[in-house]
Structures are given as C-alpha cells and as structure tokens.
Amino acid sequence: MRDFLPKEAERMRYVEQTARELAQLYGYEEVITPVVESYDLLAAKSGEEIRERMYAFNDLGGRRVALRPEFTASIARLVVTKMMYEPKPLRLFCVGSLYRYDEPQMGRFREFWQSNYELIGSSKPEADAEILILTHDLIERLGFRNHWFKIGHMGILRGILSQEGVKEEQQNQMMQLLDKKQWDEALSVAQGLGVSEKCRATMKNLFETRGKDASKILEKARENVQGYEDAIVAVENLREIVELTKQSGAKFQMLIEAGFARGLEYYTGMIFEPYVTERETAVSGGGRYDKLVELFGGESTPAVGVANGIDRLALAMKNQKISPKVPEERRVAIIPVIEELKAKAIDLSLMLRKAKISTEVEVMGRTVSRALEDADRKNVTHVVIVGPEEFKEGKVVLRNMKKREQTTVEIKNLPKQILMGKS
C-alpha cells in the first residue's frame, strides 16, 4: 500500500477524471458502494485465487466481512436490492479503491484503484461492442500509443466441458489455470476428469488458435469445435461482436484467442483485456456475466462490463512519458513586504480565490527575494508583492514569473489582470 507524491497523484486523478468524463459522454451514471461488504457476497463468484487473497475479518457484531477485491459483485448486489425494477438497460459507473493480498510487483498492489463501467439488462452483441469501444476510447483519450486488445469467449471452453459432463466447480479450476497460461496443466486436469480424447484434442487446438485476423481465427475455432453445439454458438456470438465493433468505425488492434480464459468465475461470454506495448500486464479487463444478478436473488439479468486499472494506466502513462493534459492554470503567491501587511495579504488571497484563482500566501517569514525563489521552484505563474507605498494607493506589484516582468496594478483590477495574463 503506497503513498502518492504530488506528480503521481496528479496522474492517478487525471486517469480517474478522464474515466468519469467518458462515463458522462456515454450515459453511465455514477454509483458508490461500500469498501466493506459481506464476505459471502464477495466470495460467491470471485474465483479461488481472489477468495484466498481477500482481506477478510469478523467485525464487532461477529459478521464475516471483507474489503472489496473488485466491484462487480457489489454492483450486482446494488442492482438486486435497489435497482431491480429501474428501466433497462442500466449504465452504471463506479470508481474507488480495492484490496487483495497479492505479492507486490510491477503493476500489482495490495491497495489499488479501478474505474468500472457496467451495462446491465441487455444480452445483445451491441452491448458487448459498446463496452469494447468505451474501453478503447478511454485508452485513446489518455494518449497511449501501440495498444491492443486480447479477446475471447468463455462460452467456447465451457460449452465443450459442459457437454463432456464436467461440473462447473471443476471447470472453474481449469479456468484458473488457463488464466495463468498453464495450458498443459489444464489439459492434465481435463484428462483426470475422464473427458474424451476428442475433447482433449479440441482444447489443445483451441489453445493454439490465436491471431490478429479475426475472421480467419474464428473460422478455425468453429472448425475445431464441431460437435459441441454450445461452443459453436459462442464462436458465432464472438464473431458478431467483433464484426459489429469493426463496422462501427472504432479502429483498434485485436488479438483473438479461442482458448483465452479469465480467473473470475462469473464470466459467461465475451471476455477481453487491453494491453499497451511496454507492459505485459493488462491495464483493464472485462466481459459478460449473465448469471451474477440472478445468483444474488434478482431476476435473470444479462450484463457486461469492464474494470480499468487506474494504477496500471497511470504507470503506463509514466512509462510512455505521457503528461496529463491539464488546462494551464494561474498559480499565484502573495508576499507581504512587512509584518503589518500580513492580514492584507490574506484578504487579497480570499479575493483571488473567489475569482477561482489558485492562491497561496507566504507564511514562512522569508524575505521577498527568498520568497520569489521559492515561488519559482513551485512553478508559480504570478507573484503579488504587497508593499506599504503601493498599498496606500490601493495598488500592488504583480510579477509575471515566466516573463520575468512586473508592473504596478490597482487591487480592484488584480483578478482580471492575472486571468488575462497581463502584467
């Protein structure tokens, strides 16, 4: 768990603010859920690895609770308890901190931040396409170069295994292995469960079916899964989503992986992870989860969403030397020349803040020259020097720190002079 210094905090908040602005543009409404939830709720479909890494404890009332390790379970609970009969689809946005007891490494932390978009109530491929396009839009707006999406469909492998009689709990064990790219180990588990030789051969072929030519890869996947009807339906669903995304005009590189799986147990359909070239870790992840709302006691409700890693996106921005596109602001420091003018300096600062100008007052008792040096190091754009002679005439000295120019201005015109950049 980390402290963020000002520059790091600026990047984090920039990613968060960009995600929030995008939510508004796409019609997603923000909701806020608690950091502490029922352990059973969070553990229900999170996956074995996450269950083992949750910060779980008993509260003073003897209830088993945990710090949320991800948002989707909380959103599903919220929908069931508060929004079940709201007009569909629901487009929901949330942002905040999450907690998992991971081994700290590059891009993986025990306290981390995410922004989530959830589209709830539609089973149509255009809903999946919207989440893909929205995620791509966020990455584009943050200024990343050379990014790409890995895309698959949980229904392909689950369709094969279900037809072979493999129970859901055993499928989940295999999906955990596949999420870690442990393909041989997953095949060994399948063999131990007594699946057919055809099943093992089909899965092995699917693990090797990947590429950037979506039409070619999906056709090959369809050929591989002949005889497994649910898997065929999943391939066709993925084909429709990919084609719809391409036809929409959203242009981004895709890597289709027929044997791709994610560790969260609630995924039922299309899944994806975006990457930027310099990083081996996905910066986001998402997919379709059609059974989660029903699992928590709601009506059968299809849903699809994405979790964007704010920490990972901020770190990737740093690696690619992308600076937050923050509008240039005036930053003002007010320096009283003598002790008797300190209160007047504070009064001036209140006037400038009412004009929405960032203002700080010299409070260290430094000389004017030392205070100017300090303001320069802090990238202050303007300094207001409050001297006794000027103040008697209702004026102050305004210094433009970038131009190294200064002039005397009337106090009543000070905000206008600063905002106009004139000195």
Would you mind describing this structure in some detail?
This protein is an alpha+beta fold and 423 residues long. The chain folds into 2 domains: 6-319, BirA Bifunctional Protein, domain 2, CATH 3.30.930.10; 331-420, Anticodon-binding domain (Rossmann fold, 3-Layer(aba) Sandwich). The protein is built from 17 helices and 17 strands. The strands form 3 sheets. It has a 9-stranded mixed beta sheet. A 5-stranded mixed beta sheet has the order 14-13-15-16-17, sandwiched between helices. A 3-stranded antiparallel beta sheet has the order 2-4-3. The longest helix is centred in the N-terminal third of the chain and has 21 residues, at 6-26.
In short:
The protein has 423 residues and is an alpha+beta fold.
Helix content: 40-55%
Determine Rg (CA atoms, Å): 28 Å
Broad CATH class of the largest domain: Alpha Beta
- Protein structure class: alpha+beta
Keywords:
alpha+beta; five-stranded mixed beta sheet; elongated; 2 domains; Rossmann fold; nine-stranded mixed beta sheet; 423 residues; BirA Bifunctional Protein, domain 2
